[in-house]
Design brief:
The structure holds 2 protein chains of 2 kinds.
Chain A (H helix, E strand, L loop, with lengths): L1 E3 H11 L4 E4 L6 H9 L4 E4 L3 H15 L3 E5 L3 H15 L4 E7 L15 H5 L5 E4 L6 H13 L5 E7 H5 L1 E3 L19 H13 L3 E5 L2 H4 L3 H11 L3 E3 L14 E4 L6 H9 L2 E5 L5 H4 L10 E6 L13 E4 L2 H12 L8 H13 L14 H12 L3 E5 L3 H9 L8 E2 L10 H11 L4 E7 L9 H7 L5 E6 L4 H10 L15 H7 L3 E5 L2 H14 L3 E6 L26
Parallel strand pairs in A: 2-3, 2-4, 4-5, 5-7, 6-7, 9-10, 9-12, 10-11, 12-13, 13-14, 15-16, 15-17, 17-18, 18-20, 19-20
Antiparallel strand pairs in A: 1-8
Chain B lengths: L12 E10 L4 H11 L6 E6 L5 E10 L1 H13 L3 E7 L2 E12 L7 H7 L2 E6 L3 E8 L1 H11 L6 E11 L1
Antiparallel strand pairs in B: 1-3, 1-4, 2-3, 5-7, 5-8, 6-7
Chain lengths: 563, 165
């Protein structure tokens, strides 16, 4: 059947099972928006800024594992979307982002709202397309969704000139993709796996080092089974929170710059580091040449380029983590392993010696860590937790009792302030049975504050808990520790009235100074089913600890007792 | 036991990498962009379609330590339109140079020198003489050095093409 390019876009999204699209219209994309008006296949959620549309699609994708979809216009619409693309790219989130472009005959003439969109998105997407010929649209959509969701996932950008949305072509959605140059490896090499199992059999202090890839590969079950069957202890990166579940006795917490003492010591002392979908990020390893320096390394990753990038593993295995783990679980059945009880007990001793902790103030003022713990106690597995970036993000990662993967939505790789609120909108839309909490700071929340209105319009009851210390806290912490307390541009004493602010956008606001008030506010907020802002006045000078200073080894942590 | 200090030999090596890519828009910018984004070097780059196919061959001469070269190959392989990446160990390499020399130079020896580098005089105009030579890149570099004494007006190099032995 012949139809316009704009209609082909809509039909293609339908074919891919898209149920919601986040976006913002404009000149070059108007024909697509005209078709959105006429269709009832999917909901369109109008955000109030293009960056937020991408983050919302990202939050939707992270919390469900489905491909998130966003639509923006050319020029500034697209450039606003770039931060969202880069955020998703760094954390390998499957998304398809569609942008309008000026008509093909105008391209290259510096037309109104023209920018070289594919030139800009190339380094921050898994792949991108400029579709000049309407006939290519169905194939491009099929490929885009396939590329976004297979192999190492990532965002794919489709730039469509306006004339390609007007021109007509026959629409037949391809059943298969035909991409001879794109064949991700999914099955791990059996011989390598055998060698890795031999290494596990020899190890005395093995450690599961779990990364965000474990969430993306949906293999939390297999990892928990592996730990249970072998007794090997585990640590998680920031991106892997929830994979093991906080109740798991073999989980020793998050490792890295703000990792737990026991987790970092485990990485320091292990003799066999088993990397499961992790990529040895500098915030995880600290000083690289000291990281797990007593260990042999098994590195399982879907992306061959992750292997050998920073650390040369003894046993590299390229493949889909879930597939590899299923094989590993089968094969390891018959292998006699060492008893790891004394190794696990040693880690337990570390945990008892230096548990994750904070000191309560005698004057009753609230500690940010208490707030996170309290949300965890009151909501636990009923909440999906999004964050912005900074101190609050680290406290949330440290102190929230995560039960399952995809319960935790945070910008890890790029570290994008302004991510939390729009991502939590995507979560609220994707998981209406859960409470969508955005734990944020007084700096970050203002970076996409306009999205409160989107929440109001579409009944997305996001609860924003603002840990307000009147500082750009993480930068302030570094200035205190490494810049002789010269607080350059980090004092945020001048602030809006957050309660009035959220009320102006149609939500509910609470200002909280005490524990009792916090409980009342959170319960009321959950019951209200509205977008809420709970501003919690917390200790201004609290630091995130433990902390491995930049360039130091993981065992060289600054702990709570140190001053 | 591992020692992450000594994972890779940090010695710089020169490598010829050929990349087989789909002939499509933007493909060269993807390759070049990858090199600049990740801080890899390009010493030379040539591109031409592969006859009777929808692919092109890009030949890149680069340098870096073992880790960098490995990453270049892997990162290139990740690009969607890339079919194949070969890091060559044992190749025949050819480079072509065109040199324009003013006619008032002492040109009696030029033809002899050019032939020593598999080159020849291509053209003579009113005011200049044009020489071309095709040879291994290091020999072409030598040839260009030798030709400096004729005060060349212009030197154009093609970049390296290579084929595995």
């Amino acid at each position: 059947m012949k139809m316009t390019g704009a209609k082909i876009v809509i039909e293609s999204l339908k074919e891919e099972g898209t149920e919601v699209v986040f976006g913002y219209p404009g000149g070059a994309i108007m024909n697509v928006y005209d078709e959105i008006y006429k269709q009832n296949y999917f909901q369109h959620i109008l955000t109030r800024h293009e960056q937020a549309a991408i983050h919302a699609a990202d939050g939707y994708a992270r919390s469900t594992g489905k491909v998130g979809v966003a639509i923006v216009t050319s020029g500034p619409g697209f450039t606003n979307a770039v931060t969202g693309l880069a955020t998703a790219y760094m954390d390998s989130i499957p998304m398809v982002v569609i942008s309008g472009q000026v008509p093909t005959q105008i391209i290259g003439t510096d037309g109104f709202q023209e920018i070289d969109a594919v030139g800009i998105s190339r380094p921050c997407t898994k792949h991108n397309y400029l579709v000049k010929d309407v006939k290519d649209l169905p194939r491009v959509f099929k490929e885009a969704f396939h590329i976004a969701s297979t192999g190492r996932p990532g965002p794919v950008h489709i730039d469509i000139p306006k004339d390609a949305t007007i021109n007509e072509a026959d629409f037949e959605y391809p059943k298969e993709v035909d991409l001879p140059t794109y064949k991700p490896t999914t099955k791990g090499n059996k011989k390598q796996l055998k060698k890795a199992i031999d290494a596990i059999a020899e190890a005395k202090k093995p450690l599961l080092y779990i990364g965000g890839g474990a969430v993306l590969a949906n293999c939390s079950h297999e990892i928990r089974e592996l730990a249970k069957h072998t007794g090997i202890p585990a640590v998680e990166t920031l991106m892997a929170r929830g994979v093991m579940g906080h109740k798991n006795p073999l989980l020793f917490g998050m490792l890295g710059m703000h990792g737990e003492y026991a987790a970092n010591m485990a990485a320091h002392e292990t003799d066999l580091l088993i990397s499961l979908g992790a990529r040895f990020d500098d915030r995880v390893t600290g000083r690289l040449d000291q990281f797990a320096k007593r260990a042999k390394v098994i590195h399982i990753d879907i992306d061959p380029a992750s292997i050998d990038k920073l650390v040369k593993p003894d046993f590299p295995i390229v493949g889909d983590l879930k597939n590899v783990l299923i094989n590993l679980l089968e094969e390891i059945e018959e292998v006699e392993l060492n008893d790891f009880t004394s190794w696990v007990n040693a880690l337990k001793e570390y945990q008892q010696k230096e548990p994750l902790r904070y000191l309560e103030n005698s004057d009753g003022s609230l500690k940010p860590q208490w707030v996170v713990e309290r949300i965890g106690k009151l909501l636990g597995d009923k909440a999906i937790v999004s964050t912005d970036v900074g101190q609050h993000q680290m406290w949330a990662a440290q102190f929230y009792p995560f039960d399952y993967p995809r319960q935790w939505v945070t910008s890890g790789g790029l570290g994008t302030m302004g991510f939390g609120l729009p991502a939590a909108m995507g979560v609220a839309r994707a998981c209406p049975d859960k409470v969508s909490i955005n734990i944020t700071g007084d700096g970050s929340i203002l970076m996409n504050i306009q999205e409160l209105l989107t929440c109001t319009e579409y009944d997305l009851p996001v609860i924003n808990v603002v840990l307000n210390n009147n500082y750009l806290g993480m930068v302030r912490q570094w200035q205190t520790l490494f810049y002789e307390n010269r607080l350059s541009q980090t004092d945020l004493s001048i602030q809006p009235d957050f309660t009035k602010l959220v009320e102006a956008f149609g939500g509910k606001g609470y200002k909280v100074h005490t524990k009792e008030d916090f409980d009342i506010a959170l319960k009321d907020a959950v019951a209200s089913k509205k977008v809420c802002m709970i501003e919690v006045i917390v200790d201004r000078l609290e630091n995130v600890l433990p902390m491995v200073p930049n360039g130091h080894a993981l065992n060289e942590m600054t702990l709570l007792g140190d001053k | 036991m591992n020692n992450f200090n000594h994972y890779y030999d940090s010695e710089e090596i020169r490598r010829v990498v050929s990349v087989i890519v789909l002939n499509e828009d933007n493909v060269l910018s993807r390759i070049v962009g990858l090199f600049s984004a990740r801080g890899y070097n390009i010493d030379s780059l040539t591109v031409a379609p592969i006859p009777q196919s929808k692919y092109s061959r890009i030949t890149i001469v680069t340098n870096g330590d073992r880790r960098i070269i490995d990453q270049i190959v892997k990162q290139l392989n990740k690009l969607i339109p890339v079919l194949k990446v070969n890091e060559h160990q044992n190749v025949i390499e050819k480079d072509t140079v065109l040199i324009k020399i003013p006619i008032d130079q002492d040109i009696s020896n030029i033809d002899v020198i050019a032939r020593a580098y598999h080159g020849s005089i291509q053209n003579v105009s009113d005011d200049a003489i044009f020489i071309s030579a095709t040879d291994a890149p290091s020999r072409i570099a030598n040839f260009i050095n030798v030709m400096q004494k004729f005060n060349p007006l212009e030197i154009v190099r093609s970049g390296v093409v290579a084929m595995e032995r």
